[in-house]
Amino acid sequence: MGTEKARMLRGELYRDNDPELVAERRACQVLLDRFNATRSGEDSERRAILTKLLGAIGDGSWIMPRFQCDYGHLITLGRNSFLNYDAIVMDCAPVVIGDDVSIGPRAQLLTALHPMQDHELRRQRWETAAPITIGDNVWLGGGVIVCAGVTIGSNAVVGAGSVVTKDLPAQVFAAGNPCRIIRTL
């Protein structure tokens, strides 16, 4: 493992144009191109591709095309979980999705962060990443965006179009931009 990849996985500043990281993203894109080109009913082909692509995929879980991610192997999908159409998972850090999770269409799980204060570092393409964890039996409505470093507790529901910038505890309904707890479930 090269220096930039190790830095990325430790959550430190790294350069995404490192040749090793570029090669990994290209290999991921080849699998995604194959996955996204599958036709309705080609469930076994989709499953075989996802098994190669993801770090883990639990029994009974599936993802609908069009699906996009950076590396794939940093994504763990539990049992009986579902990502609907047009999901984007920027997995520059681990993304752990629990069992029985439902993620609506056009959801985005975004682990990448860019320097806000240091404009020169940002110009030079330095970035960091922070993991995302989604507990069991969570439902993310359509168009939800989950930001870097966020953990969503089990049995939580996040309303459509919400932008989750901070951790959410278990068993709550939360919604809005920024997302806030509406009530306990």
TrEMBL record:
Pfam families, A to Z: Hexapep, Mac
Cellular component terms (Gene Ontology): cytosol
CDD domains, A to Z: LbH_MAT_GAT
Keyword field contains Acyltransferase: yes
Tagged with keyword Ribonucleoprotein: no
Signal peptide residue numbers: none
Gene3D superfamilies per record: Hexapeptide repeat proteins
Coiled coil (residue ranges): none
Lineage: Bacteria, Bacillati, Actinomycetota, Actinomycetes, Mycobacteriales
InterPro entries tied to this protein: Hexapep (IPR001451), Hexapep_transf_CS (IPR018357), Hexapeptide_acetyltransf (IPR051159), Mac_dom (IPR024688), Trimer_LpxA-like_sf (IPR011004)
Family according to the record: Belongs to the transferase hexapeptide repeat family.
Keyword line: Acyltransferase, Repeat, Transferase
Recorded GO MF terms: acetyltransferase activity; O-acyltransferase activity
SMART domains: Mac
Name of the protein: Sugar O-acetyltransferase
Domain Maltose/galactoside acetyltransferase: 5-59
SUPFAM superfamilies noted in UniProt: Trimeric LpxA-like enzymes
